[in-house]
Amino acid sequence: MGLMRYLCEAAWLGGTDVARDVLVTVEGDRIGAVEAGARMPRTGVALSGLTLPGFANVHSHAFHRALRGRTERPGSFWTWRDEMYEVAAALDPGSYQRLARAAYAEMVLAGFTVVGEFHYLHHGAGGRPYEDPNAMGSAILSAAGDAGIRMTLLDACYLERAPGQAVAGVQERFSDGSAASWASRAGALAQVVEGRRGARIGAGVHSLRAVPPPAVEAVASWAAERRAPLHVHVSEQPAENDEVAAAYGASPTALLASVGALGPRTTAVHATHLGAADIDAMGACGTTVCMCPTTERFLADGIGPARALADEGCPLVLGTDCHAIVDPFEEMRALELDERLVSRRRGRFAAGTLLEAASSAGYEALGWPEGGRLAPGALADLVTVDLGSVRLAGAGLDHVLERVVFAATAADVHHVVAGGRAVVEGGRHLLVGDVPAQLASAIGALEAPAASAKPLR
Ligand SMILES: [Zn+2]
Question: Residue 156: what pLDDT?
Fold first, then answer.
């Protein structure tokens, strides 16, 4: 890849700063220069609309995309989980790769250029490892490569169905049996990841329900040795807090702190039901919090203390998690709008702050600190929003950040550059082609009974 010039009609350069006529020069997969108010050269790619850095989808379970629309009935998080497990039971490396490729392509079309895949579906039926114990991890890595999205593969440890109880049913596919076995398999996967462009490894602890504190400590040191990110589901549901308190006499956050698993390389996912001491503990050491607002409302989780966490020093980032909706703008504005519902106050997060949560802070949380900004030296991941849509039409660039954050949808993204190459043009995915057709076929294949009856090695 040589030199490319992008002639942006307008671009967000951080904070509240929207500049006109921004010339972005890209060398290979990096931004070489950013010049605002530039005299545009004759050659280059004109990007009309507002260009933003690519968005980070910090928390994803790709296979949940197959559930969209299928779980709308009375129930709770836990009844939804039973339905999610049915999909998990049906997947094998081939079907997972096809489904994930289409799901990641949907993300790219929406403007996401990096995804944190929180991966715990490791083994075959009954927990029997595949011939390649990382066949599932490799399948989603390939899927991300095909879809043109960067990936941090967060290999998650899952050992118990609840404190002191053995895994059962489909959960057997999640468990490596011990933290040591997890570390050895994840170590092999880290080597696979090293050989791939656009991929990095991270560690996951499914939750304090599913991983006892000594094993959490082992996973945290595995991540620390590699200077890799560590992501953990924390306090998504009150029942999770209750079970953990009954077993260990402390909150999930306090247990994480007690084994040294909080800190700037750690991301707590959800953090919905926290006590004041939990918020203090996370803030004091700069733990990042990934909120997944569309999922948290979808699953009836509740609304997390976003403003309080930010005030205590936690960077906030965003993820689409169960993919009930894949839309970075919807996640961004939900952070503010949910706060309004809870606090009955407006203006809790400015549009520029919400954009930072979706871009630079998200990249950082996924172990790509050089991404998520339009600046020299940054990864050349660019997303352009069409300001001419009926949703965004307004007075030129006046209040354009607020219009985009509070009214744009994924459908307004019309151009995406990832690692210096165009992956979406005119709203069309250049690498995957017909994304809706691929989603339909990948999801349709899972509904065939043969998919779950297939013998596994
Ligand atoms: Zn999750």
Answer: 98
